[in-house]
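Re: weekly structure request thread

Next one in the queue (863 aa):
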Amino acid sequence: MPAIDYAAVFATLPLPAILIDAQGTVVDVNDAYLASMGKGPEFGSREILIGQPIWEFAPSDDPLLRQDRVLEFLQKGNPPAVLERIEATAAGDAILHEIRALVLPEQSGAIIVREEITERVRQAERLQESSRYLQAFASVGRIVLESLDLQEILDSMPRELVRAGVFRSLMLALVDEDQTYVEVQRSFVREVDEGGHIIPGSAIRPSSNISGRRFKLNEDNPTPIVARTGKMQILVGEEPRLAPPYRGVLAMAGTRPRVSFFFPVKSGDRVIAVLATAASDDERDVILARIEAMQPLLDHVAIAIEHARMYEKIRTSEASARVRLGVERIRNAILQMESDRDWIHVVQTLTDELVGLVDDAASGINLVREGGVVAAFSVGRGTSDTWEEPGIPDPVAQALATGEAVYRRNPQQMRRSGDTQEMIDDGIRSVIDLPFGTGTLALNSPREDAFSASIIENLWLFAAIIGEGHRRLEDLRALDVKERQLQQAQKMEAVGQLTAGIAHNFNNLLQAMMGELDLAMLETDQQEANELISGALSAAQRASHLVHQLLVYARQSQPGELSSTDPLRIVAEVEAICRRTFDRRLELDIDNRIDADVRVVADPMQLEHVFLNLCINARDALEEAKPTQPRIEIVVEGVELNDAETPDGIGGGSFLRVIVSDNGPGMDETVRRRIFDPFFTTKAVDRGTGLGLSTAQAIMQDHGGWLRCDSETDKGTHFSAMLPMTVAQRSQPMTPAPPVELLGGDETVLIIDDEEMVRSTAARMLRRRGYTVLEAEDGESGLQVYRENREQVRLVLLDHSMPRMSGREVLAQLRSEQSTVRIVIITGIPAGLDDFEGADELMEKPFSLQTLVGRVREILDSV
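Done, posted below.
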């Protein structure tokens, strides 16, 4: 086979070509190459180029500039793949070259061919661009022809046109049917380069800066002008120009010319919508051509919007009827509410009615409660939950403050309004809150701008009815509180009656015990026996005080005898009791900060009861928490308070403050507010009844003071007992008064009491003092005995509570018979003399026999 004459073949190539040898030296260039170089005489002749290494005169951006690359493919016989080079002309236009290399056999060199492909590439780009535009037009055309959903039409048309690159941005504003205003519905943009041209592959994103903005048609703005006149408006201005990013940061690089186009979408002569876009100044003619080319599509869009509006009216009419029925169903659910538990049923009914009104929407209710806590009820889209969260979300607060709906059409508006990123991450794209007084009806949707004006109008009806429901819920809650308060009052009344009955019977037993002990002490002279009897009497007296405390709580008694009391002595007695009875591991500290002459006007026994109760509560809290070092501290101090620092009804002044603190678990605010409520307790059933602190508070209030509780979870508890404070008058010590001799008499005394032990011990003591004593076991026999001995009886000791005929009835009968006999009422239930009209004196059980003898003599001597 004859050898190929490559030089002859080379000479016939129509494309620009260079022939090089195995060392990369130019052997020949063809005429086409010389013509394509376009250089001066020093580079434009064959004689100058031949003999030069190819990399010596290749352009700076030429792939063949590198010597090592050329020699490598010449020696190995593996030419590089097709190479491209972009060359800029003096006018700034880009020229594209395609470079191919053919290695000759036996390492004899290579032929390098350069071909300009600028026009071919541009034709391919124009074809791709036309294909994208046609696909976008087809997509929009299909939607406008098939869909009757107005929101879908408004969303798809600008989005598809911007995605296809027809426009770098597109705004759509809709003219209302009454031709009074035009409102921006959608706005989409693509990212552009420093020249203002679309960056290939850049994402489309919504622009929320103007979405939702409404213009009156008579305003001097391009959008309403186009809506009013139906003619295109073209505005020339400036826009910021961004330099290429440096280290990922965009920088401002001055401005560039921008042309804005506002053009109408019309049905006949009627403007249905206004579209707006912008472009760089060099694209003005291109954009105008595209607007003109898509005019048939815009005509279809106008017809589609009108059809969708007509369909929306039909749907709205049907929806209005359904909404009315739905509102009635919700109202029926509200009227059937009987308790808190039924509220969830009302919320679920609301959600059921909202399904279908807004496709794919989830609904919920935000109720603003005291302290800025929002109770949220959410049902829908697979979620059914109830929770509370601190703080009022900004959109809820805004809706309640303005009384208007707060509508966030897209994620950008959601972020600006204070919605959480979590909502956006969950796929929520639009949200609306409609206020109803104490909360909002909230709906969200996975679609942007999902709530049309007609839908919002219907949602207001649901918001109004749910507002009615919440008011009824609050009324039911208030009624429930009143019912529980009534039950509590009835319970307290029952406790009071039960306490009074128990106290009467218990006091009768104590009266008998104390009477027998008094008589026993009179019968013996042995010191040891008298000490034992005296101890038993002291215990009985303490038992009597305990009964008195029960009656204080039940409000059957007023405070005991108030006197100037040394608080330090009371605290010392409480300390002694605590140290004897509390666990030895518990540390008890007393911090006294007052002088020894400080006094309070109080019943010492009741004050001891208050302080002891506070210490017992602290001990119980420590036993529950089990701290490493349990500790109770009692601080006694004096403080000066003004009127603003004291409870209502108590003026400012000097106060004694006794603080009982522990390092136990503390309590939250909810528990702290209820701590003084009767029957409220955090203890186990066998540890308390909830009466201790309420009783202590009652005692403090009866003494002109109050109790205060300060506590936080895990920070311990501090109870402060506050009492008006005085200072004892300094005087000379008084010598003890000699024992008073109990005088007797010879008068006749009638004792009427159904308790035989009480009656007999009193009778025996009075007989020991010389009195003649008559006894009767009930009211009827007492009247009979009195009538039979009317002339002799000078004094009647009459029990208040007796079966069949009460002491009050006996008293009334005696006074009705014009009797002038002295009558003393004896009662185991503390009362006042004013409660027994006609009585001369009142004595409370239990009393000592010495007290009885002294009072009898005193009353008889006062005749």
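The radius of gyration is 52 Å. The domain at 128-245+254-312 is CATH 3.30.450.40 (Beta-Lactamase).
Next request, please.
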